[in-house]
Amino acid sequence: MIRRVEQIRHDLADHADADRAGQQQAYMKSAIPFRGVRLPDVRRLTRSALRDDPVLSQEDLVATVTALWDDASYREERYAALAVLHLPKHRRWRDLTLLPLYEHWVVTGRWWDLVDDLCTHALRELLITHPVEVAPLIRRWAHDDDLWRRRAALVCQVGAKDAADAELLSDVIASALSPPDELRHDFFVRKGIGWALRDYARTDPEWVRDFVQTHREQLSPLSIREATKHL
Predict the structure, then answer these.
(1) For the range 59-64, what are the long-range contacts, defined as Cβ-Cβ under 8 Å and sequence gap of 24 or more?
(2) Alpha carbon 213 to chain centroid distance?
(3) Closest CA to 103 of 51, 73, 162, 146
(4) Dihedral angle of Cα 203, 204, 205, 209, to the nearest 10 degrees
(5) Using CA atoms, how far apart are residues 45 and 47, in angstroms rounded to an integer?
(6) In degrees rounded to 5, what are phi and psi of residue 86?
(7) Confidence of residue 2 (pLDDT cuts 50, 70, 90)
(8) Which terminal CB of the chain, N or C, has fewer other CB atoms within 10 Å?
(9) What does the pLDDT look like over 131-166, one tens digit per residue?
């Protein structure tokens, strides 16, 4: 595991671009510096490292991604952790035991590039395959005091298409809007609501039209604009 992680870090350093790194850090408002490696290249380098030193077990997978994420000196290392997690050949190990890891990444990632990637892939996958166990957690997160848990609950069905649970989507939006706190006005909550509705409109546009009409007084103009963008 250590050799694999060090290889990924070494390859990222070899492809560093200082000018791009500064631009990326400013754009992302990131406390963690960037190497300046483009995301497709991060993923390509990660796949290459794992071809030479493949992950052999769930324990090995967790150790690898945890080292990349928790000990990251550059933001691309967290992108690499997500890339390792999301590899199709690792799907057999992405089960309910990884939920605490996902939650840890949501609350420590704390920005849309990391949280959205995790939630619209690994968390969405787990929700679809284990709805009985995962949906109650998503409902709790929808009114959580932590902004990024709330954001995760809103966007975790983006891309689910016919597998999306409309009742759950309705519940999490209602929960995100109802707490008497300032988070319901946060940009990432309002934008997340709009994105989730816009995505589901591709599957059931009439449901989204009806939902927006019914909740027009509670939804922000941003959420409504995003939700109805393609209707």
Answers:
(1) 60/1, 61/85, 61/90, 61/93, 62/98, 62/101, 63/1, 64/1, 64/4, 64/5
(2) 28
(3) 146
(4) -140
(5) 5
(6) -80, -5
(7) confident
(8) C
(9) 999 999 999 999 999 999 999 999 999 999 999 999
